[in-house]
Each structure stands twice: as structure tokens, then as C-alpha cells.
Amino acid sequence: MTSTVKRHPIVKRHPATHRQPATSPLGVYEKSRMRLLCPLMLTLTLLALPASAAAQEDGWQVRINGLWVDPDVSFTDLDSNGDRVQAGAEGDIGISLTFERRFSSRLGLEFGALYAKPDLTLDANLGGSQFTASSSVAFAAITAGLNIHLTPDKAVDLYLGPLVAQVLFGDVGLRAQIAGAALAQDFSANDDFAFGGQIGADIAFGDSPWSLNLAAKYLDTSLEITDEDGEKTDLGFEPLILGVGFGYRF
Hints:
Number of strands: 18
Strand order of the largest sheet: 3-6-7-10-11-14-15-18
CATH topology: Porin
Largest sheet: 8 strands, antiparallel, barrel
Number of domains: 1
């Protein structure tokens, strides 16, 4: 009969433990993802052709986007006995809704919310036994930011600005089979307050109030989990959030 292990030191630090950066073929990409925003800004600026209608000086704009959320989870735990635990994450689709109040053609205040459920993955070698476990992690953020519109009088309205966010994480439950036994361990996740930034563009459909929206956000936040003994582990998170959708001004 398969036995159930209620608790196991999956990401628990040992007395003679040292942390080292996780390595992967995508490591260089993960550390330099923000560099993608510079060529994106340049490309969108070059696309900023004269608009057919004057820029709206004030008013509201609502945007709804589908998202790709790519967390940067990078954690490795290696002790003197050779036990090794490495955590990572896989991206997931999500959704966002934002409202921007334009005070002038150049400045706007944006409020929004987003949600996704990326997968947390765990590769471990404990006592000579190797196993892999995974768990989806609910990720939500309530954001506020100042948008600076660089090309308000163009067909492509390019904007960028800083963000603050209240980040909410769901609890983590890891499940795996190891040596014929069911391994189960649950962790609570701590919420976080984060800073970040965004860049985006509204591509107007002629004189219509509708537009195509492209956006990229980055949040400097970490997923900190707590086991049943109260021991905390910081896995990192720092998601790059890419969005495409539609906007409507009124």
C-alpha cells in the first residue's frame, strides 16, 4: 500500500547549506529580459505616423488585454550531503483590465488588475532519490501608475511610466511520488508590495474610439513561501508581463 508523507524538506534549508544561482539554457535571457523594452520602444516610435484626428486632451480609456506572464523563479538549495533542490517556473496566459484617466494629452493616471496562474516546478535529488513536482500558483496584482504619452498626436500613441502594485499569491501545494510513497507538502505564500514599470502603445483605428493595445510590464516582486515549521524561503518571481488587447476611449 502506498504511504503518504505529510511533510518533507523539499525546499527546507539544511545546516550546511549554501545557495547558488540556478543555471539553465535560458538563464542569460531571464536576466536580461528588460533589455527587450528598448528595441520595442524604438520600433513603436518609428511606427508613429501622423494621426487622422487630433489627440484627445483628457477623458478616460479602458483597456482589456490577454497576457503572457513569464515569472523569473530561480532557486537552488545544495547541502553538504549532496541533496539538491532546484525550483523554477513556467509561463502562463492571463488577463488584465485597466482604466486610465487622461489629465492632458501627455499625462494619465492608470489603475488596473491582472491575474494568471503560472506553474511552479521543483526538481530534487534527496538521499539519492530523484523526483519532480509541480504546483500552479495563483498570481494577481492590483496596479497603479503614471503614464507619460510620448506621441499623443500620432496614430501610434506610445506611453511608458512607473508602476506600484499590491501583489497577491495563492498557497503552494507540492505533490510527487518518491520511492513508491506519496509526497505532499503545503506552503503558505506571502503577499507583497512591488514597484515596476511599463511601456505600451495604442494603435488607433482611424477616427474610431477603439484601438489596438500592446503593452509590457515588469514587477520587482518575490514569491516567499512558508512551510509548516514557519521557515521561509524566497523563490524570486519578478514577472515580465506581455499583453495584447483592445482599448476604448470615452
